[in-house]
Amino acid sequence: MSIESTAMRWEKVQQRGGSGGPGVRWGHTCNSVAGGKLLFVFGGYGKDQCQTNQVHVFNTANMLWSEPLMKGTPPTPRDSHSCTTVGDNLFVFGGTDGRRPLNDLHMLDTSTNTWILPSVRGDGPEAREGHSAAIIGKRLFIFGGCGKSENSEIYYDDLYILNTETFLWKRVIPSGTPPSKRVSHTCSSWKNKIIVIGGEDSSNFYLSDVHILDADTLVWCKLNTTGQLLPPRGGHTTIGFGKNLFVFGGFSDEQNLYDDVYMLDIENGAWVKVIAIGEGPSGRFSMAGETLDPEMGGVLVFIGGCNKNLEALADMYYLRTGFSREDDRDERRNEKLSMRKQLKLKCQEQHSISPSYEQSPFGVQHEHDTTVYQPMPISSYMPSGRQNLYLNEYQSPFGKRTFQAKVTKTFSDGYTIETIIDGKPLRGVLFSNKPSSTSKGVDNFNRKMEEDAMKIGGPSVHADQDADKHQTNDVNDIRQVNTEAQIEIAAASEMKTPEAESLMLREVNSCGIFNLKL
Q1: What was the pLDDT predicted at 151?
Q2: Bond prior to 294 in cis (omega within 30° of 0)
Q3: What share of the chain is helix, strand, coil (3-state, %, to 5)?
Q4: Which of 134, 146, 256, 268 supports an S-S bond with 183, CB 3.0-4.6 Å?
Q5: CA atoms 352, 356, 357, 358: torsion sign
């Protein structure tokens, strides 16, 4: 995917009724939720020449702004904070109220529009503004920023991690080549990497360097970039889209504001200056930006900011990149397959210590991947008559997971079965619902079935005369369903004719063999 082959286009978003939107502001944040359908704008400085804690929501489907009523206790008004999306929740940290930097943490549940003040533990960051934040999994990373000590500013190069499930803060000291102390930089995430770009250092020099933190090993490295290099700047906005990072705007001094867009390919470290058609935003800094993908495929949004006259702005622009996440989806699919392979290997290791389970009757190895389970076709079981019936898993009309098994042995009042469910081999006994001639015969038969089940090392499967009263907490138990039809299927397995095979398939598809009780 090359920048030259894609026509990017700016589009100014026209206001449509509603609440009127957030108005002029800078130092605010915007975060997309619901797959890019909703855009939450919080905080910033502008209206009435002060900070705000208002929340405005933009619906990208109908292009309307709203200002929903929020429940809970909101954060104090602020700007230059960070706001990070974790599922349906937005995590707001730090910033400044105009007099002092802050280090409080707030969470907005966007599904209920409720502010939550979590009880945090551990070693949290000092109060700061102009820092950066990024999320990897459930870990929220906070880097850099600027604080105060008496009347002097303090620039930070420290790194903190918040577990967003336990709300435990932890300061970490990575190895490698870390970024210098800085403020007004950006921090993005891709796979297991944290990427820091640019900013202003403690000597008031503007930066364009790129540093990457491996979130697993906690090692910093400086990325040697090539191509059309990004000019030094701070106060810019960086939006991640797959392996590409889009950098817009920023400043290098009070008279030099940028209105350009650069794109960095994280994989090869190449910078490209983006030439987009249409009239884009004017030069600015401290604006907010976000991706609206997948609701609006490949669209980036930029809101507000501050111009060279230090005036807050209210305009809103789309950058239609023409990109799609197809490549990114392929990468995630490969990662998911890798995890599945690991799970299969783990199951195989567990099975290797259980010799009573024979794996060969249940499947064959894939010719290219020995960790992939492939069910054998029904025809491979049929010639031997009664002893093998195994079909694929299928979805019942009522949405229940139904698994089919092979009949290994039949009796006058039931049969033994074998199957594999979720990689776990199961053996058991199913009894018929048909009433026996005498209760004594039933008891004798039940005892015989239990003895047989113990011999083959599998769990014994019971069904009461009234199946609705059957209860168990064992997820390995199998519940009897329609056993009258099942006995006919088992009986049909005794026959060595195509008609018998047809009968078995028809009965199985109409009523199933048994259900996994979860």
Answers
A1: 82
A2: yes
A3: 20, 40, 40
A4: 146
A5: positive
Task: Kindly state the tokens that stand for 317.
Answer: 């622009």
Give dist(CA 420, CA 401) in Å, integer: 13
Backbone angles phi, psi at 351, to 5 degrees: -70, -30
Rg (CA), the chain: 31
- Token digits of residue 276: 């987009």
Between CA 82 and CA 284 the distance in angstroms is: 19
Residue 344 pLDDT: 53
Note the pLDDT tens digit of each residue in 254-303: 678 999 999 999 999 999 999 999 999 999 999 999 999 999 999 999 99
How far apart (Å, rounded) are the C-alpha atoms in residues 447 and 345? 37
The residue length of the chain stands at 518
Look at residue 100 in the predicted model and tell me its pLDDT.
Answer: 96
For range 459-478, the mean pLDDT? 38
Distance of CA 143 to the CA centre of its chain: 23
Enter the tokens of residue 275: 């030439």
Location of structure tokens 């009880």: 119
- Picking from 64, 19, 57, the residue whose alpha carbon sits closest to that of residue 41 is 57
Contact criterion met (CB below 8 Å) for 179 and 168: no
386: left (phi over 0), alpha (psi -120 to 50) or beta: alpha
> Can you give the pLDDT at residue 365?
34
CA distance 25 to 44: 6
Structure tokens at 130: 């102009």
How high is the pLDDT of residue 291? 96
pLDDT in tens, 15-50: 766 667 899 999 999 999 999 999 999 999 988 899
Residue type, 36: G
Q: Is the pTM higher than 0.70?
A: no
- Quickly list DSSP for 371-400: TSEEPPPGGGTGGGGGG------EE-TTS-
Across the strands, what pairs with 68? none
394 CB-side CA count, 13 A: 15
* Rounded-to-integer distance, Cα 48 and Cα 86, Å: 31
